[in-house]
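The record is passed on directly below:
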Amino acid sequence: MSTGPSAATGSTAAALRHVLGHFVTPLLMCVGMGLAYLGAFHAPEPHDLRVDVVGSGPSAQVLAQTLQDKSDGALSVRTVPDRAAAVDHLKTQASYGAYLPGKHPELLVASASSDTSATVVEKVFTKVAAGQGDPLKVTDTAPTADGDPTGQGIFFLLVAVSIGSYASVAVIGGAGAVLALRIRAALAVAASLVVSVIGVVFAGPLFGLVDHGLGGLWAMAWLYSAGILLIGVGLHTFLKRWTTLGLMVLFVMLNFTSSGGIFRPELQPGFFSSLHSFWNGAGFVEGVRSHVYFGGHALGGHVLVLALWFVVGLALMGLAGLAESKRRKAAAETAAADAGSGEAGGAHGPRHAARAGAGTWTEAGDAEEIEEEMEETVGV
């Protein structure tokens, strides 16, 4: 009579251990997101933020040197001979502000490069002009599109494309795990095409984040999305249910924080600032900015970053193919050995049946794990 309660207690304990084991993923996400987002965004401070003072006389030199000394490393101040040179620096993102001193002081900025950087520069030179008793005129040499007044729309487009991409990995790697790798690769490419088209609809017709250059934006969105999907599907062969956490580290925690979509690297701690130079989110954000607002200046470097991540995805798919091939060969050899031992006679029948039962249990466990993985991804 005591078998029933004992069995129920054992079943409950096993289920509880199973649930508690799955708490590891959300807790790691909590810690990772807190460290990444708060570490990158909680206290933005400029360091070596390039600004120009327009003028070649002694007064311009003195002003530039004074600002440099007082900034204590926050600014990198240089002089340029005239307004044209200052505008050229802004439009090639060689500087983020240019101050023209005089009776009617003027500050040139390029908000399309980074609205937050422009705001920091404006605060600095508003104080300079106020110290001279003059109001400051601010001129935006590269304004953003009307549908993106804060200049952060491209960042949120990055978020949408990223989520669509890495969430698709769970579907392809989980529900599609029984498919051949080449079919999963084709699905990844197709999914990236759909996600990138959705991104273009958001950026253009729906919200007007950009007013031209949608073709180039689509190409970069596809390359970015395809890189994430190929990397994710390739990693799924090795990480299984931990793939979602791995992709969140790569393409959320480290990616969004280093993209430059909210704060440029000159306003961030050194770790995230260094990631900006080669992470794929930064390649997308800066590539779109360059394409839409800065005449394609340095666009090749940003596209190269996206292409290299795409190549990494192809390499991981190749490694996944080799690993899966080895597993299939090992499984075939095991099956052949089991079949050979089964011919030994009825004495081995129960043992063979036990192996078959174990195989069925493993398949059921794999199916349950796939379902849980997709549910966790949707929850994220």
User: Anything to note?
Assistant: DSSP finds 14 helices and five strands in the chain. Confidence is low (pLDDT under 50) at residues 351-363. The domain at 49-140 is CATH 3.40.50 (Rossmann fold). Strands lie at 49-54, 75-80, 98-100, 106-109, 137-140.
